[in-house]
Amino acid sequence: MASPVSLFEEQTRRRRQTWWFVALGVAWMLLLGSLLVYAHVWVWEELPWVGNDRRVPAEPLRRWMLAGGGVATLVWFLGALGVYARSHRLIPFLVGARPATGVEKEYLEDLLADVGLAAGVGSGLPALYVLESPAANAFACGRSLTKGSITVTRGLIQALDRRETAAVLGHELAHLKNGDSLFVGEALAFAWVVVGSAVVGTAVFSLLLLLGFGALKASLEVVKGEELENQLVGCLLGAALGLFALVAAVTYAVAVGAVVLLVAVGVKIASSSVSHAREFLADACSAQWTRDPLALASALVKVSSGHGVASGAAWLVAPLWLAPLPLAQLSGVGQTLVAFLMSTHPPVERRVNLLVAMAGGMAVVDAPELAAQRGSRWAAWREWFLLALAAVLALGAAVWLFSSVGARG
């Protein structure tokens, strides 16, 4: 049996957690830019033609690293700002949703108006969109209630009853009323910056590989010439250039790949924790406004037990959805990386248990598909453990980075 949880204490706790996680994300963005600059300098210095007298001095390297950290943070900020400013129309269009019309519009507007009245929102409710998908899911986006939108799938309208649908709309309305689009935009931008760094690194690595293999092939073509001296010189030069490019490619992949991997783990923890805190907060607000925590718990069970939204664009905005998209839809290394970075929802079992606790802990949710939550103490401290882990990783990376620079004198 779950212990009773105060709706207002839960909301206060999640708001307080959010700012810790956002601060941690900013630290990781600064680290990303600094580490990438250091990795490129290290690769340059490790190349065969660079001697100890060509090593970059500590002072200019510090300035370059600070500039790199600033650029990464600026790109992250601009990405978050773009999502925040234009998401209410852009993201529904991106996933293929259309404005709600006819009977479904009246049905959704009536439910949303009731929830909005309980939330203290008398007018200026967000626009409503419908996505033609058999999956049951929903999301909200936008910078305010009047500049916001709520998208629901056709499957959600068909699978949920009136009270469950109202609870889902309350959850999404809470995201807009609490300004969660800014935080979700930050979480999305975290992942997009890391994925972008990985894409650029992969492009440079591929270019070096192409140069290496091209030079090796050219060296073999020279052998077909007539003069033995030209054959030997051309073959040696081509082989040397090709081997050098291949060594540079491997060195670059190791250095940049290690940075992206380390930052991906830290950013994943920070962005996931932001989304976790805001999801719990929206759950608590919906429970307060509808006075029916079990309606949202039941809706979460139905949404998480069905099929996911089968769309590549849906994964680009994965943190927005009411329930996480199933990983079974993905395949391949690149898609696995996207799933790792974009899967940012707390476990449905944890959310259901908290909603049951908000109802007083006595009610039972009919959820045979969901296993009972194990290790409740661990679940309660999980977010803070992850925060501490990401903070320790960030501190360790920063100490190592600046001590390495300081060792240059």
Q: Structural class, please?
A: mainly alpha
Helix and strand run: HHEHEEEHHHHHHHHH
Largest sheet: 4 strands, mixed
Number of helices: 12
Radius of gyration from the alpha-carbon trace, in angstroms: 26 Å
Relative strand content: under 5%
* Annotation, overall tally of beta strands: 4
The amount of helix comes to over 70%
Q: Please give the alpha-carbon distance between the first and last residues.
A: 61 Å
Question: Unreliable runs, pLDDT <50, ≥5 residues?
Answer: 362-378
Average pLDDT metric: 77
| Major beta sheet, strand line-up | 1-2-4-3
Overall shape: elongated
Quick rundown:
By secondary structure, the protein is mostly helical.
Could you characterize what this model shows?
Helix content is 72%, strand content 4%. It has a 4-stranded mixed beta sheet, sandwiched between helices. It starts with 6 loop residues before the first helix and ends with a helix. It has 12 helices and 4 strands; from the N terminus they run ααβαβββααααααααα. The longest helix has 63 residues, at 228-290. Strand 3 (138-142) and strand 4 form a beta hairpin. The protein has 409 residues and is mostly helical. Mean pLDDT is 77; it is low at 362-378. Helix 1 packs antiparallel against helix 7 (228-290) and helix 2 (58-95) packs across helix 6 (180-222). It is elongated.
Identify the notable features of this structure and list them briefly.
single chain, 409 residues, mainly alpha, four-stranded mixed sheet, elongated
Blueprint (SSEs and pairs):
Blueprint (H helix, E strand, L loop, with lengths): L6 H40 L11 H38 L2 E2 L2 H17 L8 E5 L6 E5 L5 E6 H6 L2 H16 L2 H43 L5 H63 L2 H13 L6 H5 L16 H10 L5 H11 L17 H31 L3
Parallel strand pairs: 2-4
Antiparallel strand pairs: 1-2, 3-4
Helix pairs in contact: 1-2, 1-6, 1-7, 1-12, 2-6, 3-5, 5-7, 5-8, 6-7, 7-8, 7-12, 8-11
